[in-house]
Amino acid sequence: MTSAPVISAKTLSLTFETNDGPVHALKDVSLDIEKGDFVSFIGPSGCGKTTFLRCMADLEQPTGGSITVNGVSAADARMARAYGYVFQAAGLYPWRTIGGNIRLPLEIMGYSKADQVERVARVLELVELSGFEKKFPWQLSGGMQQRASIARALAFDADILLMDEPFGALDEIVRDHLNEQLLRLWARTEKTIAFVTHSIPEAVYLSTKIVVMSPRPGRITDVIESTLPKERPLEIRETPEFLEIAHRVREGLRAGHADD
Question: Domains in the chain, ordered, with CATH?
């Protein structure tokens, strides 16, 4: 017997009402994300990738269809603290230390001081930032700040990690390094990850499943199951298997534009 999907969208649609008329952000999106999946969403700007992620997080409310997270509504999942959310910018408070930023959700949730200390130490070690707890955000590089943001999302041990282009503003060398670190983190924690990106190599390198989306109104044009092994050195990006998957993603993006 197979377990129920962790995230399940059925004919999900979302229309924003604006002064210039309705904006159809998502249309008839259906997708299941299984436990332990690493799912990347890729598509042109404005195709609804982030909107879909925000629906999972109950930050946007669909106007049609349905979405469940852990078998309950997105609102109930949010109240149950089912997920951590990593935004495009690290969003760290400059007046709090790195440890203080990571502790913030734990303080809000009422964890004991001892539990906070243990959890902060554990997630700093997970993102390879042990020893930086007393530093302030401005003392860290952009890549380190983003790792601290990931640590904050992991601190209360949610099973689901929602990531909205977390490495998009970083240079390619730093991005490669963080991609490697994220794969190691995923292997160690066995989280279910939904990841928004504009980068084809990043989507192929990280994912067990790649969801290709069309220009607005956002629809799914292809869902590609990766055949790459779980262990992925950066050099795998030069293999025929990797390039074949990347080609299929590129074709899916082209097909989405052709349907426009």
Answer: 1-82+162-181+192-260 (3.40.50.300), 91-157 (no CATH)
